[in-house]
């Protein structure tokens, strides 16, 4: 049983980069390097001076005002919202809930895949079935339809996508909800990068009302607070109670100071904050892909999220090559093999570093 699930590979790369003798630019993790909204800090300061009763357990499913705020923004009932420890726990609750319905034990995933999905599937005793996406990361609903069966408990998708940067069309999302309904399965739509849609065409699965879809999200990326651990899942009314119980049994409750600060930030932060972050990302995409052009690399230009996948001739995306790149250029990326077989030749670089330009120059010089 010990070997059924493993420490995610990114952890090993971070460790290797941390122990390197050279100055390493971290393009591994998805930690925003920019400021959270000012109101987030204000909320935290304010919280520090509150009464001791505010330092005790919050309601297990989350602070009511935060659930109400999310419900109103997303057009759902407050009862459907569970505040989680980031999108990570939201995905776990959603996948566990789909599997415990006993309508099959298979989880359909896309390839390349965010590695935590297969990790969680195995941990939960499910099996994986991968649907390959196109070279640009787009998902063909008919391929999902062909892969799905009565054994399918859930279809887990992520748009904007980590690692490909693809943003799925509204039609694709509509079809995915329909496929889940056809097989009495659950579409789990992980929308953690929704504020980093660079196309303006992002579609949430919430647009298609259904008892067969769960939407997961978090403030980790949108408010630049991956360390706060505040996310949420929106369940169909019939599925929410058991998910709340699982959340309570695993966590007791979430973090009250984090939820307080997030609520304050949501109420006080206007659209400019998010727009500025997208503009910064657009600039970084341009800087980085220009350098990849100079290096003669093949790459995907992200439509959203934080990541660029690149392929350098004769330099497959193995863990060994990633370590060599750290040692010889001081740039740390993720091995493509972490995301499945289809991107073994590729490396993934996260654009959440103030040193994107320098990293791009180092790579261009190395591979030119
Ligand atoms: C696709 C995807 N889902 C979920 C997460 C985890 O989000 P959180 O930090 O909110 O748990 C990440 C983090 O990088 C991610 O890329």
From TrEMBL:
Keywords per UniProt: Aminotransferase, Pyridoxal phosphate, Transferase
MF-aspect GO terms: pyridoxal phosphate binding; transaminase activity
Chain ranges of the Aminotransferase class I/classII large domain: 22-362
EC number(s) per entry: 2.6.1.-
Pfam families cross-referenced by the UniProt entry: Aminotran_1_2
SUPFAM superfamilies: PLP-dependent transferases (SSF53383)
Cofactor(s) this protein cannot do without: pyridoxal 5'-phosphate
Domain of life (superkingdom): Archaea
Annotated Gene3D superfamilies: Type I PLP-dependent aspartate aminotransferase-like (Major domain)
InterPro entries: Aminotransferase_I/II_large, AspAT/PAT-like, PyrdxlP-dep_Trfase, PyrdxlP-dep_Trfase_major
The protein's assembly and partners: Homodimer.
Family: Belongs to the class-I pyridoxal-phosphate-dependent aminotransferase family.
Protein name: Class I and II aminotransferase
Organism per entry: Natrialba magadii (strain ATCC 43099 / DSM 3394 / CCM 3739 / CIP 104546 / IAM 13178 / JCM 8861 / NBRC 102185 / NCIMB 2190 / MS3) (Natronobacterium magadii)
């Amino acid at each position: 049983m010990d070997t059924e699930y493993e420490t995610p590979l990114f952890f090993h790369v971070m460790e290797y980069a941390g122990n390197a003798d050279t100055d390493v630019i971290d393009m591994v993790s998805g930690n925003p390097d920019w400021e959270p909204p000012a109101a987030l800090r204000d909320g935290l300061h304010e919280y520090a001076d509150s009464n001791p009763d505010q330092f005790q357990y919050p309601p297990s499913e989350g602070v009511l005002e935060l659930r109400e705020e999310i419900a109103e923004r997303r057009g759902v009932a407050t009862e459907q919202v569970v505040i989680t420890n980031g999108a990570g726990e939201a995905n776990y609750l959603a996948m566990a809930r789909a599997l415990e319905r006993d309508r099959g034990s298979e989880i359909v995933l896309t390839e390349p895949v965010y590695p935590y999905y297969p990790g969680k599937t195995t941990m939960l005793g499910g099996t994986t079935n991968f649907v390959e996406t196109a070279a640009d990361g787009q998902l063909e609903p008919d391929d999902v339809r062909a892969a799905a069966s009565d054994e399918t408990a859930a279809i887990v998708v992520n748009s904007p996508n980590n690692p490909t940067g693809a943003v799925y069309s509204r039609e694709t999302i509509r079809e995915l909800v329909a496929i889940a309904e056809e097989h009495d399965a659950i579409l789990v739509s992980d929308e953690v990068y929704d504020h980093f849609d660079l196309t303006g065409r992002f579609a949430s699965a919430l647009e298609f009302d259904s008892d067969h879809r769960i939407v997961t999200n978090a403030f980790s990326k949108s408010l630049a607070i991956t360390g706060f651990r505040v996310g949420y899942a929106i369940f169909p009314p019939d599925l929410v109670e058991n998910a709340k119980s699982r959340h309570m049994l695993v966590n007791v409750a979430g973090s009250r100071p984090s939820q307080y600060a997030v609520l304050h930030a949501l109420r006080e932060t206007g659209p400019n904050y998010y727009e500025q972050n997208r503009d910064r990302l657009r600039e970084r995409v341009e800087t980085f892909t220009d350098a990849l052009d100079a290096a003669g690399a093949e790459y995907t230009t992200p439509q959203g999220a934080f990541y660029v996948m690149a392929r350098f001739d004769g330099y497959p995306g193995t863990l060994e090559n990633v370590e060599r790149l750290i040692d010889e250029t001081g740039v740390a990326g993720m091995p493509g093999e972490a995301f499945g077989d289809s991107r073994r030749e590729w490396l993934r670089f996260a654009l959440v570093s103030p040193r994107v330009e320098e990293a791009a120059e180092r790579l261009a010089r190395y591979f030119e």
